[in-house]
Design a protein that fits this description.
The protein contains eight helices and five strands. The chain is of the alpha+beta class and 293 residues long. Strand 4 and strand 5 form a beta hairpin.
Length: 293
DNA sequence: GCTATTTGACCACG
DNA sequence: CGTGGTCAAATAGC
């Protein structure tokens, strides 16, 4: 290790990241020695765990010789992947398909490029914007399905923003969100520091996936905007990822349908934004606690 | 009836 | 050819 550091041009960076990780671990240790209460101005144990994990991930990434972009979108995607095998993607094609005379345009798309995207990891899926879910896929080697969202104003305001949300495999309380495109709609244009300020108080239930199981009441928890007003958290029986996921997606504000999370402010929650396109960052100049890589 | 979600189908891309 | 992103019919909730 030390020999490596001597040779590595990013020695100082690695050292800094590792020291940071050690510091986070120390904080966590202190935190764990005390009762559960949250300290003013301090971070939670959850946050510290993630920070520690991230610090070491960064160090490892640098050591692997990829310090220019410490974590690329693809790397994070792979990091989210695990050992689990795909459950249904192949079976999708087992069924006989009847084509509909060329009218069906499903699947006619250009595969999205990684550039121009950015990533956020947080304990909540909520970002204050109005999203419409349009798909969900089980991802190969990934324990948790990936959910696809587009802006609710895609058609009325031609907003092209989309995002993909997936529970982080290493840390299932965290959501890995990849954003594509920027909001061009008016109603969702809120400062980023408001988008990322919801609390992480809703992890009362273990997140578990039962692929392809559809419960009759799964919709009870599926609507992003309705959830929050209902405030239901007790429907664990429909333990698809969705039901838990969408519970966590709910902001606590009753008016989030209009993307009004302003006023909520969680000072030091983990936000990570990674982009291969710096122009995207310029649009979020007031984004607090963004970490650039 | 309207709106949102679910999920199988479809197909571009690697 | 397998995977993953998107579409759209079916379904559910209000």
């Amino acid at each position: 290790m030390e020999e490596y550091l001597h040779e590595n041009p990013h020695k100082n960076l690695i050292k800094q990241v590792l020291i940071q990780g050690k510091d986070f671990a120390t904080q966590l240790q202190c935190l764990l020695r005390q009762p559960i209460e949250h300290h003013d101005g301090s971070v939670s144990a959850d946050e510290l765990v993630v920070k520690i994990w991230r610090s070491f991930t960064q160090a490892i990434t640098i050591m692997m010789g990829n310090s220019k972009s410490l974590v690329s979108t693809e790397e994070v995607d792979q990091a989210d992947s695990g050992d689990r095998k795909s459950t249904d993607s192949s079976s999708d094609q087992l069924r006989n398909k009847e084509k509909q005379g060329g009218k069906d345009r499903r699947g006619c798309y250009k595969r999205r490029k990684i550039s121009g995207s950015w990533i956020r990891e947080s304990a909540t899926m909520d970002d204050g914007c109005a999203w419409r879910k349009y798909g969900q896929k089980n991802i190969l080697n990934s324990k948790y399905p990936r959910c696809y969202f587009r802006c609710s104003h895609k058609y009325d305001q031609d907003c092209q923003a989309t995002k993909q949300v997936q529970i982080m495999q290493e840390y299932p309380k965290m959501y890995h969100t990849t954003y594509f495109g920027n909001h061009t709609c008016h109603s969702t244009k809120i400062p980023m520091h408001n988008m990322i300020t919801t609390s992480c108080s809703q992890f009362n239930h273990p997140i578990e996936v039962k692929p392809k199981i559809r419960s009759s009441n799964s919709h009870d928890n599926s609507t992003v905007k309705e959830e929050e007003s209902k405030g239901q958290n007790d429907d664990v029986s429909s333990s698809t990822m969705d039901s838990n996921l969408w519970e966590d997606f709910m902001p606590s504000s009753p008016s989030a349908r209009d993307s009004t999370l302003a006023g909520h402010h969680n000072s030091s929650f983990l936000k990570r934004v990674i982009s291969s396109d710096m122009e995207d960052f310029a649009k979020f100049g007031d984004f607090e606690d963004i970490e650039f890589y």
